[in-house]
Every structure is written in structure tokens, then in C-alpha cells.
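Table S2 (text version). Query chain:
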Amino acid sequence: MATTEAIPVIKVLFTMHPGMDSMDFVGPLEVLNYAKHNINDDATKAFSFTFVSSAEFTTTSQGAGFRAHMDYKEAYARLSEFDVMVVPGGGVDEILKSKAEPLGLIKAYSDVQKKDPKKERTLLSICTGSLFLAQQGILCGLSATTHPDYYAKFEKLCSEISQRDLAERCDVVEERYVVNNLRFDLEDEAQNPYVRRKSDSKPPAMKRKGSNAWKESNTRRESNARRASLRLGGLRVITSGGVTCGIDASLYLVSIMVNEEAANEAARLMQYNWSKGVVVDGIDV
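Corresponding C-alpha cell output:
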């Protein structure tokens, strides 16, 4: 975590691969780039971005070219620096067939969290990027979604991986986005808006504390212990459906890591109507 005058800057790593979908990449980037801790102060941008690819330029399925900031070798060495990894979809079949990047980097990122649960980290896949997570066994025992055209293939892959790893199968759901491993950070669990069981009937008594809560969750001993007891060391795993669902999931990420006002302002600037997904064992408040 880098800081500027005590305001947390959330470091985001975008993976890139040949044939990825342009909007799977640009949509989340647009949302996160608009996010500010103070919506009236351009100096309080909440996120910084780094792009990684196996080549200097990556060509998308639409023919657009994006330039990487670093290669995968450097990314492995610096992986623990990043608070969020965003994995676009598109062009997944060739990557799965050849076992190419970003598969290895995705698995390494989840391993970093298991080894070091003291830091809060998030893995966000867009559209068919969820198949990369499934292939690496990260979705075993979690709930997830993908593009509707890939539901059958996704189900089949998740089943094969659960048998390969002798692990619990992923629960594939038809939602715009799905969030696993809610943040456990402040106050009493019963009063924490991030902890909402399906059986709960009362609304949360306290509101989100956004960036302050995120910053404190990286230093609070109780939060570290709670994360260590969760799957994947408490790695927050978010999967989304196609293009616009990735925008929805990115707005959700802004709302919990910055604040709700920042998410709503980003949506306003994009003239976009934010549709909510689901939070496993919780509600999206």
C-alpha cells in the first residue's frame, strides 16, 4: 500500500493476454480511474495501475493494442505489492490449452495471500477470465459466475478441476457478479456491514467506512487472524459476467474499498446505471 498524506492508494495489477476482450480491460480501468476518496478533489485518486503482459504490446480480439508496464518476470517479483489483481476475459481457449500466462501469475497471487493474510487482497475476473481462476483451482469451494455463453464450459471445467484437486466443487451461479470472502475488519462482527448471513433479518447498524476500514484492516490484528482462517487466506474473489457486469463488479469494489459516494460518482460520470450482484453469505448493502 502506497500512501499520500495518509490517504491510501490502492495498487491494481491488470493482467493482459493476446485475444483478450478490450472492454473487459477498459471497463474496470475506467471505473477505478474515476474513483476518488474525495469526489471534489482530483488529488485524492484512490487507485494506481500497472499492466503486465508477456510482450510490450498486447493485441485484443478487437484489434486494439495495449502497452504493458512490465513483463511477467517482474510481476512475479513484485506480486506482494499489489492490493488488487484484475483478470480480463476473452481469448481464453488458447491460454487454457497452452497453460500460458496469466495462469501462473493468478495462482501465485492467491498463494501470496495464503502465505501473508496480514494484507487485504482482491482477485477480480471479468467475463470468461473466471475460467483462468477455475483452471488454477482458486474457485474450488467458492461461488462464481462467467459469461452466459460459457456457463456449460465453466461448469465442466469446475467439475474436472474439483476431481483433479480432490476439492469441493465451485457453485456456478447466474448473477452479474459474485463476491466471496467478505471483509472482516472493524467492530463487533454482529454490527459489521460486510458480514451479512442469509438468515439475518435486521439491516446493518453501521455504515461502510470505505478507505478507512480498508486501511485499518491491513493493520488490525483481529482482521489478520480472521482472514487467515478463511479460504485462500481471506483473498476476496470476485467473478463477473460479460462486459457491463465487469463494470458493475468494479463499482462494487470502489464502494467497499473507497466509499459508496465514490462509486456512485464514477457511475454518474460514465452515465451508467449500476446493477448489483450477490455477496456469498451476505447482502450487497
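Notes on Table S2: The radius of gyration is 18 Å. The chain has ten helices and twelve strands.
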